[in-house]
UniProtKB/TrEMBL annotation:
CDD domains found in the cross-reference section: CLECT
Signal peptide location: 1-19
PANTHER family assigned to the protein according to its UniProt record, in alphabetical order: MANNOSE, PHOSPHOLIPASE, LECTIN RECEPTOR RELATED
Pfam families noted in UniProt: Lectin_C (PF00059)
Name of the protein: C-type lectin domain-containing protein
Matches recorded under SMART domains: CLECT (SM00034)
Key words of the record: Signal
InterPro entries: C-type_lectin-like, C-type_lectin-like/link_sf, C-type_lectin/snaclec_domain, CTDL_fold
Domain of life: Eukaryota
Domain C-type lectin: 34-173
Amino acid sequence: MRALVFLSALLGLSYSVISNRNSRRPCYYGWTQFEQDCYKPYRMRARFMEAENKCKEVGGHLTSIHSPEENDFLRGLTSTGHVQENRWDNNVWIGFFYEKQSETWKWLDGSPTDYTNWATKEPNFMDYDSEYQASMMPDPSFDEKDHPGNWYNPDGGQWNNLHDMPLRGFICKQKKSSTHISF
């Protein structure tokens, strides 16, 4: 009798898992929907291309951003709520990069560059052959070192270009209709 009860419970659990996997949810667990896309912030730290490869593993790319509304949504998704004393403390990688050959900024997912939100004086250091990847600064920050008393990123959500070396959190984006693999 116990074996029958156990078997019934196991079958019920299996059905529940299968039906949840096949349900018509717009995004899988851990992903958040905004308009026609799903997003997942990763707190783990990675270099720019390592982050892109992780996003590819789960069926997406580092996020592209195409409107102030999408930018604000992502700022809210990644903000810690702390004012940063250093503008680099909480940057997260986005999928924007500088292609030196064409001298243009492009999205890794191939979508058009129809929106940017650079912080004051950004992008900078383009002559040094290094700061060719973009990050979002989700939290407000000020720049005491270079501009005492001045806000560098007053509302949060502005972008900064960086070289590939710093390890950063990142945001993956995938279409709602993609086959989802969730980590």
